[in-house]
Amino acid sequence: MATDLHDQTLATDSQEDLVSVAFTYHGEPHTFAFTSDATIIDLSEEIADTLSIPPSNQKLMVSKLGLLKPPFKDPDLPLSSIVDKKITLMGSTVEEAGSIAQAAEHASRRATRRSRPMQKVQAYKTHDWKKEQEEAQYTFTTLRPLPYLPNPSKSLQFLQRLKDDIGIKAAMRKHKFTVPLLTEMNPIEHTQSDSEGTTRTLGLNRNAGEVIELRLRTDAYDGYRDYKTIRKTLCHELAHNVHGPHDRNFWDLCKQIEKEVDAADYRSRGHTVNNEEVYHGHDEEDEVDDHGGWTGGEFVLGASSAGGAESTGQASSQGMTRREILAKAAEERMKRAREQQGAGKSEQSGSGS
């Protein structure tokens, strides 16, 4: 609420947040103080409240601007733009005009307006405009379920939940990730079965973050996979925005994003022990099966040459997923075990002959 400086002295620390408007009325000087975002409407209402001059009777002569009177042509005119100008108020009070109806309207308006300043200032102080701008920039521009699969609206809700996830939003702001399209994948198109079992691709990243696809549904299309697992897959695919192959740099960034997402999500954050945060993340053995980074629908890395080495000249295992590396290692161990078992049988057979 504005105050007449002839009646009350403002505290020094409050003056920094206020603007003062000085004017004369019937030759008497008056000065009202307002919050920094106040407009000409606030001045008019304060004149009505303090001097009992209803808006319909108010006329403000402002140097270089001319005559201003309600209803104002520019009701959003900031008071900060006229504080340095000479202002003269003309108008009759309610008593002078003898208008009882105007006095009742004035009292009702004053009672309604009492709560406005505190709400305005509180909203201004707590609003994080920078954060909102960054979240609007570093996000998933488009969400797209597959319309030919059952209940696409539910898939859209799932994608929206990922987009609005407080941890995902924090990580995308920090790393400045903008992904034009987040969509779901058709499970049947990314499931392979052979004699050794079934392999399911959980996520794909095309063109370093141009499109991210996530396996939301179960194989039978009758349900949806665990949210935390899908969110971990999304962290994995976001890391592919920077690193294509599954090398050390990729895994370091992937784990960093996972920790940042969990840390920002206060709803699932671990308890503290001795004032140190406990990270309830995933062990390095947890896997997200994907095809790494894509370019134009082709794999960036991972296709071995006939000699068994990458086209980049590095070891053939660099372009493999961790699932493939672990499976290959397990296969080698089983092969060695069979060879050792066969050698032992041959020795036993030879010694008995």
What does this structure look like?
- Residues 131-335 form the WLM domain.
- Residues 302-353 are annotated as: Disordered.
- One of its GO terms (molecular function) is proteasome binding.
- The protein is of the alpha/beta class and 353 residues long.
- It has two domains: 12-126, Phosphatidylinositol 3-kinase Catalytic Subunit, Chain A, domain 1 (Ubiquitin-like (UB roll)); 129-320, no CATH class.
- It is built from eleven helices and 15 strands.
- It has helices at 12-15, 40-51, 94-97, 100-113, 116-126, 129-137, 152-164, 166-175, 227-239, 248-264, 322-352, and strands spanning 18-25, 28-35, 59-62, 66-68, 87-90, 140-144, 179-184, 191-194, 197-200, 203-206, 211-214, 272-273, 276-277, 290-295, 298-299.
- The strands form four sheets. The chain has a six-stranded mixed sheet, with helices on one face. A five-stranded mixed sheet has the order 2-1-5-3-4, covered by helices on one side. It has a two-stranded antiparallel sheet with strand order 8-9.
- Helix 6 (129-137) packs across helix 8 (166-175), helix 8 (166-175) packs across helix 10 (248-264) and helix 9 (227-239) crosses helix 10.
- It is elongated.
- The protein starts with 11 loop residues before the first helix and ends with a helix.
